[in-house]
Amino acid sequence: MNSNMSSSWDTDVLEGQLFKKLTKYSLYLQKLSTASQVKKLLQIIEKDHVEQLRSLDQFIQESQTRHNKAVRSLELQRTDLTTTLSKYHTSLTAISNSNITAKAIHDDIVTVEREDLLIKKTFQFVQSVSILKNNISVIHSAIEARDHQLAAKSIHEVRSLPKEIVDSEFAKKMIPTSDIPEEPAVLIEKWCNDLTEIFQASFLEAAKAQDIPQLTSIFKMFPLIGQNSLGLDLYSKYVRGIIAEESRKIMTVETKKRGVFAQALLHLFKIVSTIINDHSKVISACYGDNFMIHVMEKVQKEADLQAGLILDTFNETRKVDRIIKAMNTLNSNRQDFPNDRVAEPETIRIRTHKINDQVSERDGGLKDIGDITDLLNEFSQMLQNWSMYSRFFSVRWYEFLNVTNLEMLTPPPPIADSQYFSKLQKDGFYMNFEILVTQCLEKSFKQSLSIEELPSINDLVLFKRVEHTDVFSYPISSILDDLSLLIRKNLILTLNTGQTQIFSRFLDQIAKFYQNEYLVRYMQTQLKNLQSRLNSSLVLKKYVPKTGPDGSLGSRASSPSTMENYATNKLSQFGFNFRGAAANALTNFQSNLQAVVSDEDAVLSLHHYLIYVNTLYMNPKVAHKLFITEILEENPRLLHDNFPFGNDAETLAKKVISCEALLAKQTTKLQKWSIKFLFENVLAHKIRTILTNILVNGNDNHYISGADDYDDLSTMHEFVTKWNTQMIPYENILLKDAFFDLLSLIVGCIIEKLEKTIWTLQVNELGATKLDRELSLLIATVCQQNYMLRERFAKLTQIVLILGFDDDDFDVDSGDLKEEISNDINWVISPQERVKARSLKIDRRH
């Protein structure tokens, strides 16, 4: 390849030189003019000819050398290729011979393996026959020696042999002897039947004698002779007998003892659980895990029966049905007195006692709240015991079934179709429990109303701000503490039952109870009663109870209701009530009497009203703690542990959240109503009064300020003093949320009045600056650090801001601010309002 390239290159070079020389000769020929020039040209041509010949000789010589080298190289390669081909043919011959040899070896190996397999099979057959013969001899001797366990073990070994060996002709001929002439299969079947009868009798005898080691030993023998089902049936019957016997022992205790039935049911389920846990080891080892399912089904049937008996005895002994009937009768009798809510407490108490006595005589005794609480605790514990047992049984069931990829736990058939579970639903036990919970909650709540305590707030009626350590340092009614304890107790009772239906319905019931009994019948009624004594002339001050002639406190000072009745009765002697006295003031005598008799009572009513407002605003916080914090946040596994089946825990978690949201929604309506009344009927007039001189700096509507009165902010300082006097006590007493809502209404009132005032003013340049200072001081006084309320003054501050701009900042044509200035501010007033605000300024240039 290299020689070819070199030859081609040399040829190109020679041809190029020849062309150049021919061109040169042509030029010389054209210039020839003398003979000497012809001679000279000839010499040049001859010289070039000699040089070209020499170059050609050299080129030919080199080309031949390269060619010879290439030929020799090809000859060598041909020689190497011939050698390789020779070796290749030799290898092919060797491989062909190896294939023949390998096939022969493979055939020999297959033959040897087949012979080896036949030999092993024959050896195994002979060995099995030998084992069969030896075991038959051992069994025969063991049965004669009454060593039944050895016989059973040998039978198990024979049964482990392939059936075709036992039934083979070889075995039939080789094994029978003169002492044991029967065929092996016949002998084994006969011995199994004999041992079955023996083991069954021995098992029953050991069970009767409570010989547990002997019982366990015999129980292990049944699988050895192929009687798995019989062994499990006997064992199940024995275990059911244990359960029944233990149950009878449990029920012999004193049934009137508190909580005895819950303990009895717990003990019963403990026995069943112990049997499943402990005896499963023996069953799994001798029978296999799958046989535990059979035992668990049998055991559950007995547990169902005994648990049902305990439940019936509980129902009869505790007279649950009669108590429920008595409660229903009591409720129906109370419905005959629809005016109980407005009746006097003593009248209600007497009437309730009469109804209770009548029901007690007719229905066997209506239990008091303590007895009902004990009954509920025991009832709840019984349901909880069933729930825990159901979960345990279900988990073990799927373990024995070797189900490991279970996404959610579902009750297996013995639990889902349980007679005890069906009894709880169909025989009204769930309904009875729900009725007891509801009645206990309502009755306990009514008792708590009779012992309600309202704290004194005199220590908070101050003109300096009081720092509260937490929300619980604010004054609230004791009824909220009692209610939260009642709800929490009943939440625990119903949640611990582990019954989805009960807990779900209780959440529904608590929402109804909270709204109807607590918010409407109690809180709203109390607030309405107090509202009749509140008016715009009432001032929040410390309550000083009146003293009698002997210097002691009057009886009305000890009880709010007594004080109210006393004041009402006194005033009714003169023909008017609180509302009439506040509205009419017919004579000076009556006015003076009101000042003497009702003033302090009205102050106390205002105190109580604020306490109830606080109580309302505390409700959502307490509800959030009870439902969200304690159930979902602090104990995230609580619902999952108590309601393990399916999606019950997730469903109930959503319902708990919904219930808490519903309670908050119901409370919010009453909160807004109570705060609105307080503002409109007590504070609105006072706020409008202290706003009278605000933004007044001259006669009529002129707000003209000069150097002499520019720094005079006495009007605003007077407002600040009056504001603090009026509002700081409310701020000390009311919860932050309640005070914020109250302040929101006051801010709305202030904004409405100030806006009307500002639009009527005529302001000069210094007056605009002073107006801005006064408005800023007012906003700071009213809103303090509450920026949400400060934002509501945005319209007013922007109107005043317009008054402070220079004339050069306004467009002459539109009268509005120039675009480059107005674009930098987020306006809440319209361009028209900006133009109108600028017109308030009387010293503008254009």
Automatic annotation (TrEMBL):
Residues 188-528 form the COG4 transport protein middle alpha-helical bundle domain. Keywords: Golgi apparatus, Membrane, Protein transport, Transport. The keyword Lipid metabolism does not apply. It comes from the Eukaryota. Signal peptide: none annotated. GO terms for biological process: protein transport. One of its GO terms (cellular component) is Golgi membrane. The keyword Transport applies. It is found in: Golgi apparatus membrane. InterPro entries: COG4, COG4_C, COG4_M, COG4_N. It is a peripheral membrane protein. Pfam families: COG4_C, COG4_m, COG4_N. Belongs to the COG4 family. This is Conserved oligomeric Golgi complex subunit 4. It comes from Torulaspora globosa. The lineage of its organism: Eukaryota, Fungi, Dikarya, Ascomycota, Saccharomycotina.
